[in-house]
Amino acid sequence: MPYLNPYFRHQPYLKLSFILLLAISSHQASAHNGELSLLKDGVIKDEQQQLLWQACPWGQTWQDSQCKGSRQALDWTEAMRLSNEQTNQTDWRLPTQPELKNFLKAAASQAKINSWYRYLIKTEPGEQPNFYWSSTIGNGYQTGAWGIQADTQSGHFYFRSTPGWVLMVKQTLEKTPKL
């Protein structure tokens, strides 16, 4: 059970709202059937959520069917600024917490079949950061936002100043040929 602020003891409606929010987000994040397709242009199509994901975390580029370079860690404010720039230019954006959690869980399940997906969820011992930022902010807490652990696919609330990796996503518009 997550830590509940003592303030909630005196505010039963807030406590119930917080618990319902946790239950809804964990239900949404568990409803993925794992249908991912790596496309030719370094994009991953998520059939279940009807989303396209950049195959490489921010800081890397897609070349010769792999990500080249190193993942760049950004704090949440920088990730959101980047997301807003990308949205205005290309419709790429920072995913919500349920979208990101669903995607990483699907990548983890497909990693047993396709080694490519292992890259997205693999972290080296002691590697920092080991999470991806979402666009989802906290319930009334202005200092944090939700991130998803790469290796466990669990959601955690991080201070916005904490460096994290960034994956961009956008809505599926058309059928794209598979790799």
Question: What do you see in this structure?
Answer:
Keywords: Signal. This is Lcl C-terminal domain-containing protein. This protein is an alpha+beta fold and 179 residues long. Helix content is 29%, strand content 22%. It has four helices and nine strands; from the N terminus they run H-E-E-E-E-E-H-H-H-E-E-E-E. It has a four-stranded antiparallel beta sheet with strand order 1-2-3-9, with helices on one face. The longest helix is centred in the first third of the chain and has 17 residues.
Summary tags:
179 residues, alpha+beta, Mannose-Binding Protein A, Chain A, globular, disordered N terminus, signal, Lcl C-terminal domain-containing protein, Lcl_C
| Estimated structural class | alpha+beta
N- and C-termini, Cα separation:
42 Å
Order of strands in the sheet with most strands: 1-2-3-9
> Could you say which overall geometry the principal axes of the C-alpha atoms support?
globular
At the third CATH level, what is the topology name? Mannose-Binding Protein A, Chain A
- Per DSSP E runs of 2 or more residues, the count of β-strands stands at 9
Please write the string of helix (H) and strand (E) elements. HEEEEEHHHEEEE
Query: Percent of residues in helical segments?
Result: 25-40%
How many helices? 4
CATH architecture grouping: Roll
CATH H level, superfamily name: Mannose-Binding Protein A, subunit A
